[in-house]
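Journal club prep — side note

Before the paper discussion, L.F. wants everyone to see what a predicted structure for a comparable chain looks like in token form. Sequence:
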Amino acid sequence: MKKIALAAFSATALLALSACGDAAEEAPVEDTAVVEEVAPIEPIAEDTAAVDAAAADATDAAAADADAAAADAAAAEPAPAQ
């Protein structure tokens, strides 16, 4: 009985190993790495005069708005009683 069980186990193991296949028969895996070349980025030439002029205009407009708000607040206050 031992010999029959051993033969059955050996046959099962042989069948399982043959189902896995032989590594030498498998096709080699191709290298699918992708290399992407990036073009160098050129710096953008910025017109600083236009930026400075816009900043000065914004500052002047903010100052004018602040002056107008202060004048409106002063005009809205009642005159002090004497």
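L.F.'s comment for the group: The mean pLDDT is 79. Keep this in mind when we get to the figures.
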